[in-house]
Write a structure and sequence with these properties.
Elements lengths: L37 E5 L5 E4 L1 H7 L3 H4 L4 H4 L10 H5 L10 E8 L5 E10 L6 E10 L1 H38 L5 H33 L7 E3 L1 H14 L7 E5 L6 E3 L1 H18 L4 E9 L7 E8 L29 H11 L3 E6 L5 E8 L8
Parallel strand pairs: 7-9
Antiparallel strand pairs: 1-2, 1-5, 3-4, 4-5, 6-8, 9-10, 10-12, 11-12
Helix pairs in contact: 5-6, 6-9, 7-8, 8-9
Length: 378
């Protein structure tokens, strides 16, 4: 196969062409430059015959400088202990039963780390190596994932430490000195323990939600949901807890389409958005429930809920980070996971969620859900 652009060996050079890469459907070859990963192929003499655009980007080596050179010169890899990788593995002179090198972290000149895997192509078992196919991947995406996991572990450890320390301290004190406390003191300590236990339970629930969202396993059990009544329940709970009734303004535009959704998860979304407006916003918290075009193709109508306040709002430069993990804005407190989970729940319903600036200058969150239906009626 003659591969296009940067991947083809120079004219007149005595080197094998890169083997054709089959393309499902039409049988034509794939241009290696279209591949997302770096691809380097060397012939039976160890000369590079293919060096695609992704390999050039990852290694900062021009294809013209790599084609026709020995694999070791074009791709001078070292292991993390500084040893020359191709000398260690000896793909052409090593064991004849080897067919590949598993993925591992190696270093390019300058210390840049890459993920490398290799396959040894033989015409027959135990025969000589006819070509070596090397796949390169940048480690930056994996490092970001690892950093995210490390941050999650650190956040969870920090958030768990405080309530568990409180629970342990109060229970140990009560067990050791029960008779020395009055009933009111005992009640206060037990109420504190109960509140801290609830905090731990909420955190564990958040972690389970994140795990399900990240793995695409968040289950949605659809039932008929009266979204207006659900919002009213949250407002009544805040008023019962001491918030002024006139701080909330609920506007429902009728008629609303029938909504099938998971009531518990929709309550979780409403709770998070309204709590953010109450805690971090100012003035009146306005909740608008309106019919709207459905975000799902094939459905005419959906339901939108908009929660806005009259505070200072979210800085423009932070708008694109609101739904990421650990975003807390300018005020500390909480795990910074709530809005990430909210977005995951809304999208699991086939809906969309946006953030912007409200009419009075505060933050405005708007999520839209398709009408949908339970699976057994679909």
């Amino acid at each position: 196969m003659s591969v296009a652009g940067t991947s083809t060996a120079p004219e007149g050079r005595d080197a094998r062409r890169a083997p054709a890469l089959p393309y499902a459907g039409d049988g034509a070859g794939v241009d290696p430059d279209q591949l997302p990963d770096g691809l380097v192929i060397a012939d039976e003499h160890g000369r590079v015959t293919c060096f695609n655009a992704a390999a050039a980007r990852i290694t900062a080596v021009r294809p013209a400088d790599a084609l026709g050179r020995s694999l070791e010169q074009a791709l001078p890899l070292e292991d993390l202990e500084g040893r020359r990788w191709w000398q260690l593995t000896d793909p052409y002179g090593g064991l004849a039963i080897r067919i590949r090198q598993p993925e591992r972290n190696l270093l390019l000149p300058g210390g840049r780390e890459v993920l490398v895997t290799a396959r040894y192509v033989r015409d027959e078992p135990l025969g000589p190596v006819r070509s070596v196919v090397v796949c390169l991947r940048d480690t930056e995406a994996r490092r970001r994932t690892e950093r995210s996991h490390a941050e999650l572990i650190a956040t969870v450890a920090h958030e768990l430490r405080s309530p568990l320390t409180s629970v342990k301290g109060f229970t140990a004190t009560l067990l050791a000195k029960w008779e020395r406390f009055t009933d009111d003191q005992k009640r206060l300590m037990l109420e504190t323990v109960d509140a801290d236990a609830d905090r731990v339970t909420r955190l564990i629930a958040e972690l389970l939600d994140i795990s399900r969202i990240d793995s695409g396993r968040l289950e949605v059990r659809r039932q008929p949901v009266d979204i207006g009544a659900a919002v009213s329940r949250h407002i009544q709970a805040y008023v019962a807890a001491g918030q002024r009734a006139d701080r909330f303004l609920l506007r429902i535009e009728q008629p609303l389409p029938g909504l099938w959704a998971d009531p518990d998860k929709i309550d979780q979304v409403l709770s998070n958005l309204i709590e953010n407006a109450v805690r971090h916003g100012e003035g009146t918290v306005t909740i608008d429930v309106t019919p709207t075009p459905s975000p799902r193709e094939g459905e005419e109508t959906g339901t939108s809920v908009t929660v806005s306040d009259e505070g200072s709002g979210i800085p423009e430069e932070s708008m694109n980070r609101v739904f990421t993990r650990f975003w807390r804005g300018s005020k500390r407190g909480g795990t910074g996971l709530g809005l990430y989970i909210v977005k995951g729940i809304v999208e699991a319903h086939g809906g969309t969620i946006t953030v912007g600036r409200g009419p009075q200058g505060g933050a405005e969150f708007r999520f839209t859900l398709p009408v949908a239906a339970p699976a057994y009626l679909a």
